[in-house]
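Write out this protein's structure.
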Amino acid sequence: MVMNIRTVAVIGSGTMGAGIAEVAASHGHQVLIYDIAGQAVSQAIESIGQRLDSRVARGKLSGEAREQILARFIPVTDIDALAAADLVIEAASERLDVKKALFAKLAEICQPQTVLTSNTSSISVTAIAADVRHPERVAGLHFFNPAPVMKLVEVVSGLATSPEVADGLCELAVNWGKQPVRCQSTPGFIVNRVARPFYSEAWRALEEQVASPEVIDAALRDGGGFPMGPLELTDMIGQDVNFAVTCSVFNAFWQERRFLPSLVQQELVLAGRLGKKSGKGVYDWGGEKPAVQWLDTVSDSYSPMCVQKKRDGVTEVDDVLLVETQGETAQSLARSLHSPVVVVDRMDGDVAVIAAAASNPHSATQKAIFYLQQQGQRVVQIADYPGLLIWRTVAMIINEALDALQKGVASEKDIDTAMRLGVNYPCGPVAWGERLGWQRLLLLLENLQRHYGEERYRPCSLLRQRALLESSYES
């Protein structure tokens, strides 16, 4: 199939369409660029030329190669001209009605063997193909922004998509220097589905006034190893774009509460505070973002006299218990353990997010802080919040990944690859769960579900199965 694709048509000349067109032309294809606004096509080609100029200036591309790439672009203002394409990649409006009408038209004008694909990030490929003649040639080909740079491409099969078409698209993606992952058409596919908890748990913490935005972001960035905090990332993406994807996934899953949109984010969108592109979002991008106020070093007058491990995840420092979070609040633990308690939320970094029981004597909490600082941890204290910030978010991401795996959306390998390459997670979520321990993740989610009384935190069946297997191996 790949050898037969000489001419590629790209519909839509926005950021994604122009990026995809650049990728195709850079790998030797003649590229038809179509947009209902003819001026937008010329602007897209001009922007591609500027990016190529930058590569030439940096010694990444020769001047001759630049001219050859630009010569492969053919601006198109009449959609009938796309009949010459062997592969069509649609990167237009994220509206099902628009896509259905467009693909029905493409099916009329293109040859039966022309492969028709959509760059949609969350709309059902099955629905797009429903009214298309020869729907077996319709698939999703989801690039990530910026398309010339990002390696990941989700190859999405609808109900009717031919396996040969999906195979061919994967081979083409490899030839274009990309890493394809295969998945079935389901809301959000892999990345936009599994990534939802990264955002939603941050919005919930903000709504419940657990911590300031900069603390929430620092916890996930510096403590969880994510490249950027979730709130800052939504400002970079655009609050309107991120909110729209969340709403799309939420509604496509019949209002499943795991994907519940945030009222705080909705308020930002309604106010036009869309993030960096509008100047304000969660943060004011016109000035310096507020810095995290890490706790000052505690005086050595609180130097602990006795430190001992009570059991896994529990350390006794004089009269206070440090408990690694398992989804319970510090106050509930203090009541059941009849002791001052400080709950600790940390992973591999040098950040410890803590919550102290309200009944703690001040000196007990200070001893716990001093102990953590002596271990080289930067400590920040937040409200007494079950599961805290890092473990709670990671557990929800892993749970969502396992749910997608169990329901046949994609393979374990492709899910992990997609999340590492598509959103730069420090670890694939399934591999992450294996490392962190299925039993602890299950316990944390069960405690969260018990605390809130919500289905949102329901552990998926596959997580329960893996936790049982883990306990069997240990015994």
